[in-house]
C-alpha cells in the first residue's frame, strides 16, 4: 500500500517544499459485464482500495514535472507544446518526437485531452506512486489517468464532473496511448462509492450505485501472469464486434437483446457469431446481476459470474490456462459462490464471490493449490468496494490513510 507520509516526504526532498494537495484515484475490478463497454452495453464494476496517488504543488510556469516512484525517472513537458501536438498512437510522451518514459504518455495524453475538451490547464509538479498491479486487469492505466485529471483539477480549482472527465481520460488512452478501451474504467474510478458497485450504461453514460451484499467479499486473485493490452488481441476483439454489428445492420451489439438472439445467430459467420453471442448474453447477465444484488440473492449472483467466465472462455476466447485454473480452484472451495476471469483477459486476475464466514480460509487454500498446480506465485486480495477519486489537502490525506 502506498505510504502517503513517505510520498509527501519524497516530494519535499525532490522539490524542496511541501506539496499543496494529494490526489487519489482507485483501480477497479469488474464484477460482471466484460467486453460490453465498447459495444455500448452494460457493465458493473466497483472501485477497489488499491489506488494511484499524486502529491503535487503548483508551478508558476506552464510545465508539468513529475517523478514516478514505481517506475523511476522524471517527465517534464510544456502544456502548450502538448496541447498543439497531433496524437501518435503508442508514442511514449510527445508526438513531436522527443520521447520519455512510457508511463509519461498517460500524463501528456490526459493534458492533451483535457485541453481539447476545454478545461483550463496550469503547471504543476508532483510525485506519483500507486499499488494497483500493472497488467493484472485492475485498470492501473485508468487510475493513473484519473489521478492526473484530479491533479489538473486541484491546480486549476475546477470541480470534477464525472462523465466529462471520464470521457477525456478515455480519449487520452484511445487517441494518445493507442488502446481502444471503453469508458468503464475511468468512470468507475471517478464514481465509485464504498460498499457499492456501479452499473454503467455505456451508451448513455448514465450510471447508478448498486448496494454490494454485506454478507460476501470479493477476492481478487492475481494469477501472476501479465499481458500487454495494446499488444494483445483486445483491439482485434473490438474490431470483430464492430464487424458483427455491421453484418446485423446494427449501430452496436447493444441493440440486440438476448431474447432476439436466436433469430439473428444464423446470419453471422464464425468467429463473429461467438463474439456477438458473448456480448449479447453478457449484457443480459449484467442486468440480471443487478436484480440479484438488490434482492441479496448471492447464489444467483454467483451463478451469473460462472456463466460469464464460460462465455468469455468459449465464445470470446479471452481467458487463458492460468485464469481457467484459478477459477476452477476457487469454485472448488467451501463458501465460494462464484468466480470468473476479469479484465481484458489472456492473463492477469480472476475474482471470486466468497461468503464472509469462509473468506479467510479461502485465501490460503487457493494460494497453495494454485502454486502446486502451476508453479506460479499468486497474490490474493480480500476486497470491498471503495470510494472513487478524491482530492485532499496534505493533512486530510494523512488522516484518510491512518483512519
**Unreliable residue runs:** 94-98
Main pleated sheet: 8 strands, mixed
Helix proportion: 40-55%
The number of helices is: 13
Please report the distance between the alpha carbons of the first and last residues. 14 Å
State mean pLDDT (0 to 100 scale).
Answer: 92
What string gives the helices and strands in order? HEEEEHHEHHHEEEHHHHHEEHEEH
Regarding quaternary structure, how should these chains be classified?
A: single chain
Structural class: alpha+beta
Rg of Cα set: 21 Å
Total strands: 12
Residue share in β-strands:
15-25%
Task: Estimate the global geometry from the Cα principal axes.
Answer: globular
Question: What features would you describe in this structure?
Answer:
With 403 residues, the protein is of the alpha+beta class. Helix 3 packs across helix 5 and helix 11 crosses helix 12. The protein has helices at residues 4-15, 79-83, 104-117, 140-156, 162-177, 184-191, 234-247, 261-265, 272-294, 298-314, 321-331, 359-374, 394-402, and strands at 21-32, 42-58, 63-68, 74-78, 124-130, 196-201, 207-211, 216-222, 336-341, 349-355, 379-383, 390-393.
